[in-house]
Amino acid sequence: MGAAMAKAFVEKGAKVALFDLDNVKAEDVLNSVSEKANLIFCKVDVTDKQQIQTASESVEKTFGPITSWVNSAGFSKMSPFLESDEKMWDATMNVNLKAVYLCSQVAIERMLKNGGGEIINMSSLSGKKASSWQTIYCASKFGVQGLSQAIAKEFADQNIRVNTICPGIVETEMWDKLKYEYALKRNMNPDDVMDYFKRNIPMHRLVEIKDVVNAAEFLLTDNSSYLTGQSINLVGGEWMD
To answer: Is residue 226 among the annotated active site residues?
Structure first.
């Protein structure tokens, strides 16, 4: 999802910096855009504040003030609650929640100097609706919701908006692996998992990448200028609040 957003924004004229640890996948994104001068890659561990700060300084030297920020790094693994452990807890919380906390701090520090900006934190339907075998993931995404709302309220009068996107099932590399764990949970064939999800979604389709990109574009532009502390549920009617 992060790669798709980066490519779409560059094609629309934005200057974008990718923070990631995966050089190969980042290179694929860099090679896929036509305006290559408007996309840079910074190798960053988003759970390390110093690395985030250093990369952000580099970005501003190259592109100027940071005005928009998307936190989209994610980690998920399914397991029965009593079979989960501290290692899984730490891995999930570090990427899904600690990274959002640290990156948002750095982003807001920059935005306060630059006159404001917008932050999108990628949450999940699992940040609204609990699921068995996803205890730790749900905890992390519920945490993203609370964190986002709290900082949205704190900086609303300083021209900084913070919102979340809560997708349901998106066919990404993460779900290429998770479907086998979900199949084990439901005692079903892994090849039937996605069709099972579609049957239970009122619109009978999964989230498409373009749905995520369109929602992000809305939240990062003046079309949503009076929106902060809110979440867009990209779930095809599966959850409403």
So the answer is: no
